[in-house]
Amino acid sequence: GLLSRLQTSAPTVRTLSSSKSFSQNIPSCLWKLGRLNHVAIAVPDLEKAQSLYKDVLGAQVSETVALPEHGVYTVFVELGNTKLELLHPLGEKSPIASFLQKNKTGGMHHICIEVDDIKAAMTELKKKKIRILSEEPKIGAHGKPVIFLHPKDCHGVLVELEQA
């Protein structure tokens, strides 16, 4: 009857078993990827964005810092396990200005991941045909060397690597 039909039509569940651990399948590198440092959000109105996170959501929000070499104003929102970086254009040649022309209300701009050796990361990533958007690291918002990886090589995401 019904019970025998249910027993024969029940899906087979297969489990993945392997004698090797997952990490053994990853080639060893001269550098290591660390924690998520921040998620950057481009905003058309920095004061409104600061107010949302500080006054509405109750987060700890930094003062605005100008980074002329990157063409941005930055504000950091502390989240405990990571940060949000609010980005606003500084000057007409700001990469954030062109991003906001395409995304009028703002949006996620990039993610930042820490690395233990940015120079070794650059060397190895170039060998693996990952494009880096500058020849040398620049000093980022935290006063540490940073590089950006081309979004077309990172599944549509602009990735910033920061020296830990």
Radius of gyration: 22 Å
In CATH terms, what is the fold-level topology?
Answer: 2,3-Dihydroxybiphenyl 1,2-Dioxygenase, domain 1
CATH class: Alpha Beta
Instruction: State the domain count.
Output: 1
* Shape verdict: globular
* Helix content bin: 10-25%
Strand proportion, as a percent range, falls in 25-35%
* Order of helix and strand elements from N to C terminus: HEHEEEEHEHEEE
Number of helices: 4
Which stretches are low in confidence, meaning pLDDT under 50 for 5 or more residues running?
A: 17-21
Please describe the biggest sheet, giving its number of strands, its sense, and whether it closes into a barrel. Answer: 9 strands, mixed
Number of strands: 9
Q: What oligomeric state do the depicted chains represent?
A: single chain
Mean pLDDT: 88
Label the structural class. Answer: alpha+beta
How are the SSEs placed, and which strands pair?
Layout: H1 2-9, E1 33-42, H2 46-56, E2 60-61, E3 65-67, E4 72-78, E5 83-89, H3 95-102, E6 107-115, H4 118-127, E7 138-139, E8 145-149, E9 159-163
GO molecular function, one term: metal ion binding
Keywords: Cobalt, Isomerase, Metal-binding
Protein name: Methylmalonyl-CoA epimerase, mitochondrial
